Automatic annotation (TrEMBL):
Enzyme kind, highest EC tier: hydrolase
Species, as recorded: Undibacterium amnicola
EC nos: 3.1.4.46
Superkingdom of the source species: Bacteria
GO function term, MF aspect, one: glycerophosphodiester phosphodiesterase activity
Keywords: Hydrolase
Lineage, opening ranks: Bacteria, Pseudomonadati, Pseudomonadota, Betaproteobacteria, Burkholderiales
InterPro entries the record matches: GP_PDE_dom (IPR030395), PLC-like_Pdiesterase_TIM-brl (IPR017946)
Gene name per UniProt: ugpQ
PROSITE patterns per UniProt: GP_PDE
PANTHER family attached to this UniProt entry: GLYCEROPHOSPHODIESTER PHOSPHODIESTERASE, CYTOPLASMIC, GLYCEROPHOSPHORYL DIESTER PHOSPHODIESTERASE
Location of the GP-PDE domain: 5-246
Name of this protein: Glycerophosphodiester phosphodiesterase
Length: 250
């Protein structure tokens, strides 16, 4: 079942801020979002940082990759200029810094574990262990995130490291063994591409008793349609068009 926010800001601030940065989380907050999705990858020295692509070039100036760069070097890298010159001071953040920002601002997190190729198990394990440590340090007020990943191995490692932190399995498209995978992972939800979701599959997922979350919904009409199919929640890039209160407005 889905006991989480229904409308989630994708990569922090959707299309309104440089993705996976502190500025993005602040942007989501400014638009009234208390629920964000973001991507987490390991640096060369095994520190979880926010990053979508394994290689620089699209959101970070320069060449190279996250998995071959030390965290302290990553934290100096410009992650904002690509979006707009006014974000030139924005840097790649650590997962820990974003976790603490979200906890301090009552922002629910969907932490997408995004391993660089070859680092699936390690990434799942490190992210889960760190999350567990931060939750313990935060005390009773700390709110656990929901993990998700396209990597079965990463999620399985997260389950072994921190079984009590809930998991959603990401599939870009229908796969015949989806239910078997959810059971093995003891996942609470299936997360999928809204473009590939069919009414029939949505019904199967809901009948099986799982939460159903979609990415990335950028039109209110499509949001209304898939919610009428039983979709529990979705993330959006259009936080200006689809507000955090969208469901109440349907
Ligand atoms: O977690 C939902 C969505 O973020 C998955 O795709 O490529 O945007 O990380 P991507
Ligand atoms: Mg993502």
């Amino acid at each position: 079942m889905w006991s989480y926010p229904k409308i989630v800001a994708h990569r922090g601030g959707g299309s309104l801020a440089p993705e996976n940065t502190l500025a993005a989380m602040q942007c989501g907050l400014d638009y009234g979002f208390h629920a964000v999705e973001f991507d987490v990858m390991l640096s060369k020295d095994g520190v979880p940082v926010l990053m979508h692509d394994p290689d620089f070039g699209r959101t970070v100036a320069g060449s190279g990759s996250v998995a071959t760069t030390l965290a302290n070097e990553l934290f100096q890298m410009d992650a904002g200029s690509w979006f707009d010159p006014r974000f030139a001071q924005v840097r790649i953040p650590s997962y820990e810094a974003i976790f603490l920002f979200c906890q301090a601002n009552q922002i629910w997190m969907n932490v997408e574990i995004k391993p660089a190729p070859g680092f699936e198990k390690e990434t799942g394990s490190v992210v889960a262990s760190l999350t567990q440590k931060l939750l313990l340090a935060g005390g009773a007020a700390a709110k656990p995130p929901l993990f998700s990943s396209f990597s079965f191995d990463a999620l399985m490692s997260a389950k072994l490291a921190a079984p009590e932190i809930a998991r959603g399995y990401l599939l870009d498209d229908y796969e015949p063994d989806w239910l078997d995978s959810l059971r093995k992972l003891e996942a609470v939800a299936l997360h999928t591409n809204q473009k590939k979701l069919t009414l029939a599959w949505a019904k199967e997922i809901k009948t099986a008793g799982y939460g159903l979350f979609c990415y990335t919904v950028n039109s209110p009409e499509r949001g209304r349609e898939i919610m009428s199919w039983g979709v529990d929640g979705f993330c959006t890039d259009r936080i200006d068009l689809i507000g955090a209160d969208f469901v109440e407005c349907i």
